[in-house]
Amino acid sequence: MRNFIFLTMEGFTHDPNNKAIQNMQVLGSAGGGNIQEALKTFKYDQSYLNQFAFKDVIGLEYIGDFIHHLEL
Fold first, then answer.
1. pTM of the model
2. pLDDT of 22 over the 80 cut
3. Closest by CA position to 25, among listed 47, 49, 45, 43
């Protein structure tokens, strides 16, 4: 099974000081034999996202583990 992460450049977030910043939003991840299968699984598993207006979603395949707890 291949692994994919789904992102969007729509929207924004806040830093710890509550300052708005426009950036890429990570919507989640899913696995499948190809990106279309993974997207189908993702849309089923994350169905709560249907209540939001994201239209431009990017899917990227990743290999290996994510690196966690990085600090800029």
1. 0.79
2. yes
3. 49
